[in-house]
Design a protein that fits this description.
single chain; 233 residues; alpha/beta; five-stranded parallel beta sheet
Amino acid sequence: MRKPAVVLLSGGLDSATVAAIARREDFDVHALSFSYGQRHSAELDAADRVANQVGVKDHKTIPIDLRAFGGSALTADIEVPKGRDAEEMSDSIPVTYVPARNTIFLSFALAWAEVLGSADVFIGVNALDYSGYPDCRPEFIEAYERMARIATKAGVEGTGLSIHAPLINMTKAEIVELGTSLGVDYGLTVSCYDAAAAGAACGECDSCVLRRKGFADSGLLDPTRYQTEPGAG
């Protein structure tokens, strides 16, 4: 009998790969997505497609309104940075960082895991090819896991909880290669911060730049649909 696992599923490249990893490891995947007031709903449509393709047992989309706080280009009327290179991305935490987002998402995942009797939560954070978010680092995952083990009934009773971040030390190219080997259809995913309503990517935001670089470095075909050819006038 498969063990249940909660997998945070945004609809992007990384979370789709993590869902496929959880299935490979013979978990029953309970996918969890959030309608949190983000700039577009295309990623939620993508999450539905990925959940169907990967073959999850259950998929919940939870509404929470982080626009009530704003503070991010993804949840407020702040322009999404575009055309930045990797060096610029590493200078400081960008305005696309959503305050405490992964802390909030993991709290919901933790609650569902307890109800399911699951000791496993998967998240697609990455500390190499990423945009400098503090809640994508190994220190954050380790600290959250320690907290979860003292803040829950399961933890107090000795069941514990493991937060799996299998991509955390991988490059984007390595992630693309792994996901492709697991049969992930990246054409179903949306990573763009400023995607069109139908999901076409802008090609110029930080997320698009990192995604394009991952496919280029892997030597694999990039199936992303772009609004215009990346870099075109």
